[in-house]
Amino acid sequence: MQVRTHLPKRFPERVTVLAGGIGGSAFLRGLLKARPDAEITVVGNTADDITLFGLRVCPDLDTVMYTLGGGISEERKWGREDETWVIKEELAAYGVEPTWFGLGDRDVATHLVRTQMLDAGYSLTAVTEALCARWKLPVRLLPMSDDRIETHVVVDDPEQPGRRKAIHFQEYWVRYQAGIPAHQIVAVGQDKAKPAPGVLDAIADCDVLIVPPSNPVVSVGTILGVPGIREAVRETAAPVIGLSPIIGTGPVRGMADKVLATVGVAATASAVARYYGSRASGGILDGWLIDTSDAIQADSIAGAGIHVQAVPLWMTDETTTAAMADAALTLAEAVRR
Question: What is the rounded distance in angstroms from the CA atom of residue 31 to the CA atom of residue 40?
């Protein structure tokens, strides 16, 4: 791996983040507070995307956009603040399915603009840039790919005992709350996809690459699964620092433990670190932050060839999250040396 011999004058100047939705967005708030002058590029997961009611919905991109643009519902951590649900109620009155996924009235506007632009021939990258212009984001937000990728989950069929079927990840996550047995995660279309314009450059040219506490399988994992992205992460001269999404024996938020089980990974900080792997042994990590309560796992992680540090990882507020981001950048600087 190439190592730069001199640190930039103001380390880091350029930070690239591989982000899912809620966890990635919360971390980005802290990163901006910790390094307000850094040039930050976010590569967002698009495998959660789904077409509903004729509209193309990109949940993770929108959560990052609304969060950093000041439009997110602070209570739900997804969707718009001051949302109303008239359209959802009217669709239900017509008996339109699915009823388990509702789009708020304000949110619908975003999906209408996106769908119209995609139908007109614009790429998802161009559409995302246009949407973000309205919110004046302090980061550059890139979809991981302009190609259509959708995550499906092979589950026990709740309507036909003894049989299995594949359902969209959103149905598994939203409708069933990850409460039915899952056996396999399949990112449909991923094998033929290409990284979106700017993604590989953002990985190659950054000073630090950060993997925030997002879902390792269906958020970060699907980004890395786009052909060319994992290889770019392995080859970048920048240190790659991850933050554990697991504290103790459970996820910081969401149901990451459910999908980790489908790939045979235990819900522990050390198991997720080994799942990502060290760059020295063909993985992607140089450094890994774990919560102070998991410090006993540090030796196991270090034994896998990954620099490790234990710090508080609960993202309770922006100040605490900024301290996490600062710890990640400090570890990156130590790895570079």
Answer: 9
Distance (Å, rounded) from C-alpha 294 to C-alpha 62? 32
Concatenating the DSSP letter of every residue in 27-53 gives HHHHHHHH-TTSEEEEEE--TT-EEET
Rg (CA), the chain: 19
Give the type of residue at 166: A
Q: How far apart are CA 217 and CA 324, in angstroms?
A: 22
**pLDDT-wise least confident of 5-14, 67-76, 101-110, 182-191:** 5-14
Tell me which residue has tokens 């449909």. 188
Residue located via tokens 């302090």: 138
DSSP three-state, residue 182: strand
Render pLDDT for 92-135 as a digit per residue (tens, 0 to 9): 999 999 989 889 999 999 999 999 999 999 999 999 999 999 99
Is the pTM of the predicted complex or chain greater than 0.90? yes
How many residues are recorded in the chain?
A: 337
- Evaluate whether 216 touches 256 at the Cβ level (below 8 Å): yes
The whole-angstrom separation of Cα 59 and Cα 44 is 10
DSSP notation for 261-321? HHTT--SSHHHHHHHH-BGGGTSSBSEEEE-GGGGGGHHHHHHTT-EEEE------SHHHH
Per the structure block, which two tokens stand in for 38?
A: 């850094």
Q: How far is CA 22 from the centre of its chain?
A: 8
Tokens of 160: 């036909």
Of 51, 43, 61, 50, which is closest to residue 195 (Cα–Cα)?
43
What is each CA distance from 167 to 82, 128, 174, 255, in whole angstroms?
31, 26, 12, 17
